[in-house]
């Protein structure tokens, strides 16, 4: 995979966080499938981009840095 955008990083983070959605969302009896989690994440990122994108979600993501000492 090539370089990731900030939006891509957010998408993967949201999809990961939704793994335990059944514990949070009232009425959701079982967890979301992987496809459903990514569909939600894609929609969230799309909606944020449509709102003026002050987060610069289309920009290339910077490499994660380890802890500084």
Short characterization:
The chain has 69 residues and is mostly helical. The protein has helices spanning 6-17, 34-50.
Structure explained in plain terms:
The chain has 69 residues and is mostly helical. The chain has a domain at 6-50. 42% of the residues lie in helices and 0% in strands. The chain contains 2 helices and no strands. The protein has helices spanning 6-17, 34-50. Helix 1 packs across helix 2 (34-50). The termini are far apart. The model has no long low-confidence stretch (mean pLDDT 87).
What's the helix and strand layout?
Elements: H1 6-17, H2 34-50
pLDDT averaged over residues: 87
What overall form do the CA principal axes indicate? globular
For the record, give the distance between the C-alpha atoms at the N and C termini, rounded to a whole number.
Answer: 31 Å
The percent range for helix content is: 40-55%
Stretches with pLDDT under 50, minimum 5 residues: none
Rg, alpha carbons: 14 Å
Count of helical segments? 2
Largest sheet: none
Secondary-structure element order, N to C? HH
Q: How much of the sequence is in beta strands?
A: under 5%
Total beta strand runs: 0
Class derived from helix and strand content: mainly alpha
